[in-house]
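ARCHIVE RECORD
Type: protein–small molecule complex
Small molecule: pyridoxal-5'-phosphate
Source of inputs: curated submission
Record status: active
Notes field left blank by submitter.
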Amino acid sequence: MPSSDALPPAQLQMQRNLANMRQRIAAACARAGRDPSQVRLLPVSKTVPAEQLRLAYAAGLRTLGENKVQEAYGKWQALSDLPGLRWSIIGHLQSNKARQVAQFADEFQALDSLALAQELDRRLQQHGRSLDVLVQVNTSGEASKFGLPASDVPRFVQQLAPCSALRVRGLMTLAMPSSDPAPVRGCFVQLRQLLQRLQQETALGAQLSELSMGMSGDFEWAIEEGATIVRIGQAIFGARPSA
Ligand SMILES: *Cc1c(COP(=O)(O)O)cnc(C)c1O
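STRUCTURE (tokenized, with ligand):
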């Protein structure tokens, strides 16, 4: 067992960040009377080089979130020697990238069109694979955000029923960016209420349980409002170089 001061500084920092994150998740769960095992921490590794992600794997992380397919695909290839490492695509996808996603991803959190769902389903069938998917909802009403308006989601979910390679698990959203908690929480509440409605009103409702909401800057509010997945990048891997 190497002593912890033998670890590279980057790995030590990441382990500290992870421990801190788990503590904050547990505290937010305690405030909301929730069990921390109901909240999955999805580390978002976009812009972090593949070689550095070996440290994340060594620290025990087994699923990584990426918003760009090309980048994720490259890392999947570079890290294919690591057993049990899974990939979650959390960013908008164009139909022409469905082929790649079908090949290697385990989860896709940004489903927002039927044409894309059908293309993913077709490609997945070819590979004999299936994919966990979340429907992305635009809860903030910002034109710059992807995702379906909440009012379109019940019908959309019904239309996904024939896509048998897609396992529809729940909903994902990005909240309004604001330091004022009210509009941010409002987005999370909207997603939670929409999920409840789907559970009651749609045939697929019984298999829907996931609420992916909350990032480094707002995950505590998201947990208090019912998040089951929080997507955390910078608070684990450090600040990203600004684009
Ligand atoms: C980058 C990203 C995150 C994580 O953001 P951080 O601020 O780094 O925690 C979460 N969700 C999506 C869709 C992202 O693109």
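CURATOR ANNOTATION: The CA atoms of residues 109 and 134 lie 4 Å apart.
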